[in-house]
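Anyone? Bumping this.
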Amino acid sequence: MATFELYRRSTIGMCLTETLDEMVQSGTLSPELAIQVLVQFDKSMTEALESQVKTKVSIKGHLHTYRFCDNVWTFILQDAMFKIDDRQENVSRVKIVACDSKLLTQ
Amino acid sequence: MATTTTTSGVYIHVIEDVVSKVREEFVNNGGPGESVLSELQGVIFFFFFVSEKIWETKMMQAGVLSGPIERSSAQRPTPGGPLTHDLNVPYEGTEEYETPTAEMLFPPTPMQTPLPTPLPGTADNSSMYNIPTGSSDYPTPGTENGSHVDVKARPSPYMQPPSPWTNPRLDVNVAYVDGRDEAERGNPNQHFTQDLFVPSTGKRKRDDSSAQYQNGGSIPQQDGASDALPMATLEGDTLCITFVGDKRVPRDFICSSSKIPQVDGPMPDPYDEMLSTPNIYSYQRPSEDFNEGRTPAPNEIQTSTPVTAQNDVIEDDEELLNEDDDDDELDDLESGEDMNTQHLVLAQFDKVTRTKSRWKCNLKDGIMHINDKDILFNKVLCFPFPQLSLELFWLTIILTLAV
């Protein structure tokens, strides 16, 4: 089953990747097992986001760059405003990476 | 476990889910064992909660949180002594969990700067790093003695790479050079140009500049390739790998500091070229649905930048190599910011549509990292609008009215 590896770039994904890298470097863990853990992380993360999260967000901003390559959209927004439930966040520059959700269901 | 909707709750759930599902692999089939699994879980929690704790502290200071987030005792296992750190202090790498340094990742080569090459005719046969370049046309004194010394005295424009896998003691060129010398004596007009240790980077122009070499004494050589030595530093909870001299510059630019005169085409300023070739495309169709797998074809792209006309003459020389097709400024910005905690949204998209200059993106199931916070979402509506198109839009209005 295909998984999206993009969640590995999140904070928790980076923590896991660093931990696994250290363990593989020290020989505690085999690389194959580390990859299995990462794949399981991809699945668990996707499932958790589908089932456990109900937040709706709205983003508005100036589109600095857009790119569509290999079914992945990459946007760079400037002066973006995030409306998250009842609060608001402003950032000067944000990168949005989005994979095609239909690929998972195929 | 009760389902929680907070970010940390979801993360904890994910960690436990992963650990429980890989437990079988760890324990059975000769895996590392339960202890390693517990250590893995503990370290992930440690890494994660250090950043969480810093976040909590900041939020408390900002008055958003009244106190630390309550977590159950099961969420902080302490698998061993080395992990019992006080989370109230910023993370400082210990010996056990220190992030790999550049020396570990990229062991230094024995020869960062090559030995000074000897005078032609004075070097012995056991010297290292024979680089057979150039031909017999060069005014190299001492050629008559038939030694292969001239070869070493002629530096390659591509300096010796400081990579660990190159063995400087292995003189692979001896046999070749000897053969070449015989050919040289017999056929002085024959040209041999071969760089056996050419490090390849993407932005180098390959030019046979050895014709311009002037011989004279010990030639100082600077290893420009070592400029890009990566350095790993830990900033907060992020491993940052930066390159010393991180702006990618064409090779000739680095080598220009050496004393070897080279005749080359006019040296364009690499940064001006990057700025003059922006990566902006404007579509002529009124409305597009980008859900099909469609990437813009080159013949449909219209770059509306008049600045490129100025660099046409310079660009002709490089057109063959297509060196500056990529927008390096943008790439550098993106890669540079990725190393620091950039605001980032990772998600899946349901639909991306565009109507003239108005984009609409329906995203789902994503993680946002903005303002040092992690926010998870189920649905996002994104309305980016390009700045440039707005100007074009107004321009169109003015032109239409004028007509």
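Late reply, but here is one note on the structure posted above: The radius of gyration of chain A is 17 Å.
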